[in-house]
Amino acid sequence: MHCPFCRNPDSRVIDSRTSDDGLSIRRRRQCPKCGGRFSTVETASLNVIKRSGVVEPFSREKVMSGVRKACQGRPVTDADLAMLAQQVEEAIRQTGSSQIEANEIGLSILGPLRELDEVAYLRFASVYQAFESLDDFDAAIAQLRADHAARPSAAPVAVDDVQ
Question: By the 8 A CB rule, do 26 and 40 touch?
């Protein structure tokens, strides 16, 4: 690591700490030549292979912008989208792969988006699961209904119990 002050090609690590999200390491360094101190942040690179074959760095912002379109008109906040993007990135990093295809990212968005908003999920799924007919939408909606029916619901409250 070059010193940003004197361009000396060597530096000494004084302190290392993991970031709050656990995805990067912050290192405090000191130049042995000029004594200047500076910080660096190290992250494992994660690259996306697009359909065209182009490789580019993973971007949470791109995940958020893609999902934002599906959430248009829905009660979903930017904070919700940021949390979803973080969940997606963490899931992708847990695979251990340094490169992932763009379509795989779209598919990995589906689970967290379904939990966030089912209408946005259907919109997004229609693209990434390549819905071709109304039957595909019917099947997805039927699956959502079946999952709702299978969930243990809260016990109904009797009118007499409410005070």
Answer: yes
